[in-house]
């Protein structure tokens, strides 16, 4: 399977190179069909490539073609290089021929009225927990089932990272139907409380324990002291990678469970709109103008990224399409959810909110979540709301976390 990974990576990188080296004025870079023809030629000339599975290599090209077609819409941009040890994986297309059916369940027929045959992967259940799948060139490979039913897919993808193999079947599950009657919920994402809900619930993404963090530091220290290129160094770094993978696993698991819970229990889910890429930008600055508090900002960035904000939003949107909204984030944390007054002084501390206008007190994150649920946050800019409150902020560089102090009166409904 590692050989499959190597071949798939090689073929993918060749495809990237063909497109990366293309310049205006030259003949266009080869498409999928042309690349497949070149692959056949390359397999004839290179024995080491010919020992691999042709389908695996061709699927790498197919993946590349798909990634390139979707480069504007997928959010991942132009396909890039795959690296050894980092992007190990390959796709397998099913070998079983099965009759295809339309979405309504009737058999799918082609123009001549004949049954269209599709592909399906060969999966067999071994017991309640385990099943096996046929991987070309490797025979049966056992895998642990994470769902009760057996997967019915056309293809699957095998990946290898930090000593672990994973198998993922290409299935798009049906969206979760909205509950009747359902309610609107607002979610405020923070570092102290990962997700504060407008109904008062506080959900926290599990992090590494103090002990596990100490273990990471210990292995990092040992790795740093081991001689360069030694087996010991590699082993210590592998231990660090495994512990970090555990953290990522926990985060992912939490995001999946939480997004399913939200999609099942709420009719409309509102998130505050965050640009996480901008928020987690480094404070390093340039050589001429070095930034300040760079380490602190790096720590905050790590804290933000450890919360899985982006993943929670994305997965909720995929599970409940059309039922997730983004509310503009400015002032959601400074607006009083009882009277609508916005003032920086209302936020007494990280956790405490006490309105200076009406005296309403509440947990700051919960207050923000209620504002998000109401869709209240996007307030006209202070300059446009002339005469409303009067005091405009001093023109300093605005912080990524908190808006500048502004006094704007919101008309009461
Ligand atoms: Zn108030």
Description:
The chain starts with a helix and ends in a 40-residue tail after the last helix. Helix 6 (231-265) crosses helix 9 (309-319). The protein is built from ten helices and 15 strands. By secondary structure, it is α+β, with helices and mostly antiparallel strands. The strands form five sheets. The protein has a five-stranded mixed β-sheet. Helices cover 34% and strands 18% of the residues. The protein has helices at residues 2-20, 32-45, 47-50, 54-69, 210-225, 231-265, 276-279, 294-305, 309-319, 364-373, and strands spanning 88-93, 96-99, 117-120, 123-125, 130-135, 139-144, 155-161, 164-169, 183-189, 195-197, 202-203, 266-273, 324-328, 352-354, 361-363.
What's this model, at a glance?
It is built from ten helices and 15 strands. The protein is α+β, with helices and mostly antiparallel strands and 413 residues long. A hairpin with a 3-residue loop joins β5 and β6.
Question: Can you tag this structure with a few keywords?
Answer:
413 residues; alpha+beta; 5-stranded mixed β-sheet; 3-stranded antiparallel β-sheet; 10 helices; 34% helix; binds zinc ion
- Give the averaged pLDDT, no decimals: 84
> How many beta strands in the DSSP annotation?
15
General shape: globular
Report the total helices. Answer: 10
What is the radius of gyration?
A: 27 Å
Tell me which oligomeric state these chains represent: single chain
The largest sheet has its strands arranged as 11-10-9-12-13
Low-confidence stretches: 380-404
Q: What helical percentage do the residues reach?
A: 25-40%
**Strand residue percentage:** 15-25%
Question: What is the makeup of the main sheet?
Answer: 5 strands, mixed
Which cofactors or ions or other ligands sit in this model? zinc ion
Secondary structural class: alpha+beta
């Amino acid at each position: 399977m590692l050989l499959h990974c190597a071949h798939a990576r090689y073929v993918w990188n060749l495809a990237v190179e063909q497109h990366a080296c293309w310049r205006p004025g030259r003949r266009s870079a080869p498409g999928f069909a042309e690349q497949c023809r070149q692959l056949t030629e390359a397999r004839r000339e290179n024995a080491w490539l010919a020992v691999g599975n042709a389908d695996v290599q061709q699927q790498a090209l197919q993946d590349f073609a798909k990634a390139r077609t979707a480069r504007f819409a997928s959010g991942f941009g132009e396909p890039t290089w795959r690296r050894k040890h980092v992007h190990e994986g390959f796709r397998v297309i099913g070998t079983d021929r099965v009759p295809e059916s339309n979405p309504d369940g009737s058999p799918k027929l082609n123009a001549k009225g004949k049954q269209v045959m599709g592909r399906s992967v060969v999966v067999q259940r071994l017991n309640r927990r385990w099943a096996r799948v046929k991987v070309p060139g490797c025979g049966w490979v056992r895998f642990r089932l994470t769902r009760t039913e057996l997967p019915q897919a056309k293809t699957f993808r095998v990946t290898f990272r930090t000593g672990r193999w994973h198998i993922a079947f290409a299935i798009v599950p049906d969206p979760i139907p909205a509950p009747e009657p359902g309610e609107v919920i607002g979610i405020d994402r923070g570092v102290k409380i990962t997700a504060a809900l407008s109904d008062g619930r506080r959900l926290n993404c599990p992090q590494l324990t103090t002990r596990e963090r100490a273990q990471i530091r210990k292995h990092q220290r040992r790795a740093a002291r081991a001689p360069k290129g030694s087996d010991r160094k590699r082993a210590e770094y592998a231990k660090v990678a495994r512990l970090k993978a555990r953290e990522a696993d926990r985060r992912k698991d939490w995001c999946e469970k939480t997004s399913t819970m939200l999609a099942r229990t709420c009719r409309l889910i509102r998130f505050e709109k965050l640009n996480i890429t901008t928020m987690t930008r480094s404070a390093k600055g340039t050589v001429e103008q070095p930034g300040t508090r760079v380490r602190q900002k790096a720590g905050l960035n790590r804290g933000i990224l450890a919360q899985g904000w982006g993943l929670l939003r994305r997965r909720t949107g995929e599970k409940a399409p059309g039922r997730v909204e983004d509310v503009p984030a400015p002032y959601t944390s400074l607006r009083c959810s009882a009277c609508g007054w916005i003032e920086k002084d209302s936020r007494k501390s990280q956790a405490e909110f006490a309105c200076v206008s009406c005296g309403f007190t509440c947990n700051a994150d919960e207050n923000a979540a209620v504002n998000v649920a109401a869709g209240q946050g996007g307030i006209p800019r202070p300059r446009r709301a002339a005469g409303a409150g009067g005091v405009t902020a001093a023109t300093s560089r605005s912080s990524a976390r908190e808006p500048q102090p502004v006094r704007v009166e919101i008309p009461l409904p």
